[in-house]
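Supplementary Text 2. Reproducibility record for the structural model of the 69-residue chain.

All settings were left at their defaults, and a single model was retained for analysis rather than an ensemble. We include the record here because the model underlies the residue-level annotations in Supplementary Table 4.
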Amino acid sequence: MYPIQSRAEQNSVAELWTLGQAADYIGLTERSLRRYIADGDLPAYRLAGKKQIRVRRSDVEALLKPIPA
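Retained model, structure tokens:
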């Protein structure tokens, strides 16, 4: 379900947020973000050897953009 990043991909970890960081930024709960992930609306990643789920900052910011009517 969650792609595992290689060591080379871990160089861009700075743009990856924990669910707590993302929830604080966007003003939602971690549970809400987990629902977005489960529904496929928010891509999520696991760093190799870690259990914690991470999300890209740009993907979190994309959730804030209005959907065109």
